[in-house]
Amino acid sequence: MTADSTNFRILVTGESGQVGEALQRTLAPLGEVYAPTLAALDLTDASSIRKAVREFHPRWVVNAAAHTAVDKAESESDLAFSINASAPEILATEAKNIGAAIIHYSTDYVFDGTKKTPYVESDITGPLNIYGKSKLTGEQAIDASGAAYFTFRTSWVYGATGNNFLRSILRLASEREHMRIVSDQHGAPTWSFDLAQLTAHVIVQIEHLVAQTNCSLVEAALPISGLYHASGRGETTWFGFASEAIAKLQIRQPDLRLATVEAISTAEYPTAAKRPANSLLDCSKLEAAFGWRMQDWRQSLSLVLDDLLR
């Protein structure tokens, strides 16, 4: 994969996260990727963020950093808003000042879950928890910055690396005889590497447009800047996701003793943060704009399991 404008600089935040790790692989062919560690880039410190952008002077800023501990955010609201709202605003402002574009990732948890069909980008938001509220504030700050941007709302992100539901379930399934999993929250698991591939695809498309029209990056990106839903295709529940993962693992390792899984209601599993009952996202706008179709979650689950067992 190459872009017409080559060897440009890309700043990636959240280098140790599952999306950040995947981005470093997918973006490497496009140019010089700088993914500073937490020690080098403190996202709770405005001066640290500005320094990183001004010194590296990227053409693209890809913000994969986030406070994603949904329940913990209820007692760490200041930290959640600092990382999920203030940091993206500063990154977007700095990007605008140097003529760069920013890519950011948001969440299905900006919705209240009362809609019976998948959410589209223009639907009214109404987050139920601090995490969702902080991510929504980040979205709004980026939009208000005037920067050329692409915000990808996604859901239930998982992969072969990092802390995620799939890896926790597989570990617990091998340790326990029985597990109880919520079955009345509906959504779509999204593979972290699929998000990273989408990101590279969008950058390449914009850079091709720059080369074809001989315009600036901002001039090419602004007309299609905005909010896009980008989650795995298909639909399931946390119970369905866990059951499918355990069943697929059992096929691959028939001698392994794994836990049985029981479906329970949200009311039977109280958590600090409320979750939406439906957080399915309609990704047709993404496909229409960029010709990109996210992978079906069952297909990506098989690929991730193969990777984990390799």
Provide structural commentary.
The protein is α/β, with parallel strands linked by helices. The chain has a single domain (8-163, 190-233, 279-295), classed as NAD(P)-binding Rossmann-like Domain (Rossmann fold). It is built from ten helices and twelve strands. It has helices at residues 18-27, 46-56, 77-98, 130-145, 165-175, 192-213, 217-221, 238-252, 284-290, 297-309; strands at 8-13, 31-34, 60-63, 101-107, 148-154, 157-158, 178-182, 186-187, 190-191, 226-229, 236-237, 260-264. The chain has a six-stranded parallel beta sheet with strand order 2-1-3-4-5-10, with helices on both faces. The radius of gyration is 19 Å and the shape is globular. It starts with 7 loop residues before the first strand and ends with a helix. Mean pLDDT is 94; it is low at 1-5.
Secondary structure topology:
Elements: E1 8-13, H1 18-27, E2 31-34, H2 46-56, E3 60-63, H3 77-98, E4 101-107, H4 130-145, E5 148-154, E6 157-158, H5 165-175, E7 178-182, E8 186-187, E9 190-191, H6 192-213, H7 217-221, E10 226-229, E11 236-237, H8 238-252, E12 260-264, H9 284-290, H10 297-309
Parallel strand pairs: 1-2, 1-3, 3-4, 4-5, 5-10, 6-9, 7-12
Antiparallel strand pairs: 8-11
Helix pairs in contact: 1-6, 2-3, 3-4, 5-8, 8-10
